[in-house]
Amino acid sequence: MATRIRTALWVMTFTVLVVLAVPWFLWGDPRTAAGLPIWLWWHIGWMGLASGVFYLFTRADWDRYMGVSDV
Amino acid sequence: MSELSLQLGIVVGYLVVALLIGLVAYRVSTNVAEDYYLADRSIGTLVLLFTTFATLLSAFTFFGGPNLAYAQGPEWILVMGVMDGVLFAILWYLIGYKQWLIGQREGYVTLSEMLGDRFGSTRLRGLVAGVSLFWLFPYVMLQQMGAGEAITGLTGGAIPYWAGAALITAFMILYVVIAGMRGVAWTDTIQGLFMLSVVWIAVAWVLSAVGGPSGATAALQSTNPEFLALGSDFYTPAYIISTAVVIAFGVTMFPQINQRFFVAGSDRVLKRSFALWPVLVVLLFVPAFLLGTWAAGLGIEVPEGANVLPVLLSEYTPVWFAALVIAGALAAMMSSSDSMLLSGSSYFIRDLYRPFVDPTMGEAKEAWLARVGVALFATATFVASLSRPGTLIEVGNTAFGGFAQLTLPVMVALYWQGTTRSGIVAGIAGSQLLYLSHVFVPQVTVDLAGTAVPLFARAYGGWDVALAGMALGALLTIGVSLVTTPATEEDDSRFAIGAD
User: Fold this and answer.
1) Which of A47, B325, B344, B427 would staple B476 via disulfide (CB 3.0–4.6 Å)?
2) In a domain, B147, yes or no
3) Chain B residues with CB inside 8 Å of A60's CB?
4) Which segment of B13-17, B32-36, B348-352, B462-466 scores lowest on mean pLDDT?
5) d(CA B215, CA B113)
């Protein structure tokens, strides 16, 4: 059961990573900060976050879902 | 004239250095097919990451992308991020790692070989290889078109388009024929690092002249304020989502990318590449596309048929530096093309020529024939590129859409043991037919009960028809598998990783 919750959490996490890589809530927003649009800052930060989450995934559950036996 | 010789000296000098590296790689390789195509499955993290990265980059990074940002604003950065940074990384795990595990055990070199073996069907093997080569053709052409345009632009027309394209074609053939995968991977790494550095230096140079990012953006605000707001009539949500999804799925089935899934030395290499992916995408595409965007505010005039980045650089940086950036762009195109040619030749030889023409072919003949195949393919695409059938972006998108049709049937087969040969053949053939008809049959509008309905359009309501093809491919694969039984030659244990 714990495994299923864990799997569901990963699927949700990855889905959120994909969906919010584009800041839809800033649609049409022209504000800038430090010379770049704020939607671009969001995206840059989000990609950094994605790398961090991906790294955690490789440490935690990379092999679990491929049926590789030594995990 | 001295300016011209300086420019050419830098470009040709770069190409020669790449060739020398190929020669070194050749000396350490053993000329056996597994080494020629896969560098003995021994590629490390940095090299794998950059060789895949450099392969993803093409004429689009330096020309098509910045041109689009110059004309429509910088939102393509988001498309790149979603597509390459996140979606592709996830597919890298779901498809790439799975294929790596299977390839390690079964010794596969190509996708078509893997599928053909699993479903016990040489015809399926030939079908996948044929479809892949068909869509590879326009994409190699795209690189030659980009190179031709770049060299003409750099030299102000002193060297004609065809000669630029021919120069690159000759170098590509020479290079791949001599070096094989090990050489390609080595130069890809150098080229990837080179491109990253050059693009950041270019940003620093331009920004120091115009008062930093705030100055450049303020200029843009006065000329094209709409570029700063997220979204536009061009960048609709439907456009962003369809483009990102179609390209991300298409990329995984490109022969040169897919073959990378078999070459990693260990799974650590795959993990590290996976985690670094989003950061690398941001590091490259944000500066490249912002340069194009800022150019719009700096009053840069781009002549008809030219590219914005070289024009911007010649305005703000010295001649030698602009030439170096063009060399970097050519580097991107070459590394894309030489990987494509190499993988294309392995598909042709192993999955079409050997099974259907000469089953007893030995390794030595195979290695020799692979090189002849590369030369023929590159010459054919070169001849076709002379007619310039569309813009870089149109040609590229069409190819990505074609490859994207393969992805879902392959994923279904990788993860669902119930997939049958009839199922996957129906999925691949059905989606290809749908997509091909929309690419090649001219759009017609029919009148249905008073409303005009377009048929064979490339997009419906802003959504790319390739998405419909992908869905159809998945449905057919699953549906037909459910109503058919496996043939006796099929072996679903081939893809079962935990079973042994």
Assistant:
1) B427
2) yes
3) none
4) B32-36
5) 55
**Considering only CB atoms, which chain B residues are within 8 Å of A26?**
230
**Around Cβ B462, how many Cβ atoms within 10 Å?**
12
Condensed to tens digits (0 to 9), the pLDDT of residues A9-66 reads 999 999 999 999 999 999 999 999 998 999 999 999 999 999 999 999 999 888 887 7
Shortest CA distance to B270 belongs to which of B424, B451, B481, B41?
B41
Distance CA B487, CA A60 (A): 39
Distance between CA atoms of residues B344 and B351, nearest Å: 10
Closest CA to B320 of B198, B213, B204: B198
Q: Could you identify the residue written with the tokens 């030889």?
A: B349
In a domain, B403, yes or no: no
Q: Which of residues 26-65 of A touch B (CB under 8 A)?
A: 26-30, 32, 34-37, 39-40, 43-44, 46-48, 50-51, 54-55, 57-58, 62-63
* Distance of alpha carbon B143 from alpha carbon B136, whole angstroms: 11
- Would the CB atoms of A50 and B78 count as touching at under 8 Å? no
Domain span at B60? 2-393
Of B77, B98, B499, the CB nearest to A43: B77
CA distances from B215 to A40, B69, B358, B409, B479 (A): 17, 18, 65, 50, 58
